[in-house]
Amino acid sequence: MFEAILQAIQAYDTIIIHRHNRPDGDAMGSQLGLKHLILENYPEKTVYVVGDAPGYFGFMEGAVMDEIPDSAYNGALACILDSAAPHLISDDRYTLAEKTIRIDHHIFCQQIADVEVVDTSFESCCGMIAELAQESGWKHNPLSAKSLYTGMVTDSGRFRYDGTTARTFRLASTLMEQEFDTNALFRDLYADDFASKQLKAKFILKIQFSPKNVAYIYTTMEEFQALNTDTFTVSRAMVNTMADIRGVDIWVNFTETEKGVLCELRSSKYNINPIAVKYGGGGHQKASGATVADRETAMAMLADLDEIMEQNQ
Ligand SMILES: [Mn+2]
């Protein structure tokens, strides 16, 4: 599967690894994991990691990005990870490289690199890098293993989402053979600030139910302003306070803002994406979003989600 990728990595002395903007655990994990794998197995090579700041994932070892001049790309190989489109790639200087390769698990949009392996059957890009390592007979070290494991865990929702397969566990087991502290990793990933816990408690008390048991939270402009926080924290970060309620298969978080009512739609069972699309939004089958004009439209969306429940009863 990765012959051409392996050949390219073997052929270049300098390899610069890119990933998408505003990195998640999979973007950071695949970037750092591949770096440590190359350095472990080809110690004479020079490997750089580039891109914007790691944000939440700053706890990962080696997460500080390299600052390199344009000239570093002369005669170099650029490797693009976990990115489906050029505008998503952090640091567009990959175009300066002599050759480019890409490894990704998102739905294919367009060719970006000279050599590409895109496979949506993988739960994570980290899983693809673990497969590349296995196929190439590369040795892991604790850093490469922990980095890749981080992305497998986050992109699979702790081995829970649909993309999780027997292969996911086979590859994860190759990583677990290395010594690293999974307890420390899970603390870094999932420990919450007390203020965030309190906010979630407030939101849990606001949950309401439609006639067919779609859970929803509606935050008015007045309430939103009183919380004195950003739209992301109220909208996307709060939607899953409604996850895992027994008997609730669909849930939606509505937030009134100056731009309209933000709608975050989730399901553990049904494809709610067409409803988001109907209201001008998009996303994934079980996690989508849209922004609608007013409360009335938001309630029409809620009725449409109710209709999905009705049809499946
Ligand atoms: Mn990913």
The stretches of 5 or more residues where confidence is low (pLDDT under 50) are none
| Class derived from helix and strand content | alpha/beta
Instruction: Supply the number of helical segments.
Output: 11
Percentage of residues in DSSP E strands: 15-25%
CATH superfamily of the largest domain: inorganic pyrophosphatase (n-terminal core)
Q: Can you count the beta strands? A: 11
Order of secondary-structure elements: HEHEEEEHHHHHEEHHEEHEEH
> How do the strands line up in the largest sheet?
6-7-8-9-11-10
Which fold name corresponds to the CATH topology of the largest domain?
Answer: inorganic pyrophosphatase (n-terminal core)
Mean pLDDT: 96
Taking the sheet with the most strands, its summary is:
6 strands, mixed
Radius of gyration: 21 Å
Coarse shape: elongated
What ligand species are in this complex? manganese (II) ion
CATH class of the largest domain: Alpha Beta
